[in-house]
Amino acid sequence: MKYLNVDIIEGLIKSFKENITHVSAETLGWMGVILVNLATIPTLVAILTGLTEKVPPVDLVLFMWVGLFLFFVKAAISKDLLNIVTIGLGFFIQAALMALILFK
């Protein structure tokens, strides 16, 4: 029976240590963008289904959209396709929900 070479294991551990910070930072950034996109979705869905008539404050929505737009510009400059698609999809979904509420 053959055993793994110690050099292979050490190489894997070294590679893991070098790449984990980059992967974690990218993953956390992507998750943050998704959570910002989802910030007003529950309220917008509640308005659409008639559970509430209270809309989110305009300044909250405005700051969220400006922040997402700045993230979108940053992603476009750095050519980060995953964030471009994620933020673009979030803009589209939120705009569609707001249009459904406005033209209901």
Structural overview:
This protein has 104 residues and is mainly α. It has one domain. Helix content is 80%, strand content 0%. The protein contains four helices and no strands. It is elongated and about 65 Å long. The N and C termini lie far apart (70 Å). The mean pLDDT is 82.
* Tally of contiguous helical segments: 4
Number of strands: 0
Quaternary assembly: single chain
List the uncertain runs.
none
- Could you say which overall geometry the principal axes of the C-alpha atoms support? elongated
Concise synopsis of the structure shown:
The protein contains 4 helices and no strands. It is mostly helical.
Quick tags:
about 100 residues; elongated
Break the fold down into its secondary structure elements and pairings:
Elements: H1 6-37, H2 41-49, H3 58-77, H4 81-102
Helix pairs in contact: 1-4, 2-4, 3-4
